[in-house]
Please model this.
Amino acid sequence: MKTRIIHTRFWQDQYISTLTKKEKLVFIYFLTNERVNICGIYEIPDKYISMDLDISIKELQPIKQKFQKDQRFIFYNGWVKIPKVEKYNSFLGEKNLIAKDRELALVPSNLIGDIYPLDTSIDTSIDTTLNHNHNQLSIINNKIEDIKEEDILSISADYKVPESFVRSKIDDIKNYTASTGKKYKDYVATLRNWVKKDALLIKKEVYGQSKVGHI
Model:
């Protein structure tokens, strides 16, 4: 059985306090329903939401539109994205990273590129591994300059490597793209992949673990 932890201050949040009773119910449902996973992108048809909450699909639609307009959740072809997923992450470690990657592998690739980099400002503190701009699904980190300090800190924490190593990977990406002319659709995702590739090797070098290969 999955467990979700919501801080008690959730109900005093400025945004939550402005919602109607049904909006509050739907909001907390998107954080705690049984399909919520580690990567924070999951598929759930409206008919199941309607049945679980005992509200009509007609009532549900404007609520979803409001949440997307307010950048609290992103909805796309029956999928739900909880933005800024790493902000709420309290489950770290190699096993959880493997589980997260396994879940992302099941998500259509266009969804990761289209909706993964969006942000949200509310702090609901959901205690799962539930990363920036506005509610347009096509916004992506398509320049190396789009990598922000918070991305570096998040990647460093997720893969348990020094921040200096993450920064060195940014330089590697710059050098590689400059020498080959290659461009990436999402540079934050690319940085994640480059760091992930050598994460175990860096653990060995930094913490003196036994020799391991690349992931």
Summary: Confidence is low (pLDDT under 50) at residues 114-140, 209-215. The two ends are 29 Å apart (CA to CA). Strands lie at 41-43, 74-76, 79-81.
